[in-house]
Protein: Altered inheritance of mitochondria protein 32
Organism: Photinus pyralis
Amino acid sequence: DVEDVLVLICGHGGRDARCGIMGPVLRDEFEQKLALRDFNVVTAPVEVNLAVENTERIGGDVSGKSIARVGLISHIGGHKFAGNVIVYVPPGYEVQGGRPHPLA
């Protein structure tokens, strides 16, 4: 299962030039702000072990911090303005203090 916070930003400049311009700006901003909130922002590709007996998480534990991945993706669709973002918060994710995250 994916246990990292994922931030997916439309950066498909071929579909909409605004996304091609704003996507990288938003990516950099999310990476910076998440790092300030003590997230380990991982930019390396996800390593997936497809072995059936492997029940570990996708990704890898790095330094005990919460992990966030931020990336540009192709056209999400249906958006009128650039800056369309999908944020995935894994089930059971907790906010500071141990309370359940409202989006998890």
About this structure: The first helix runs from residue 17 to 36. The chain has one domain: 5-77. The helical segments are 17-36. The chain is about 20% helix and 20% strand.
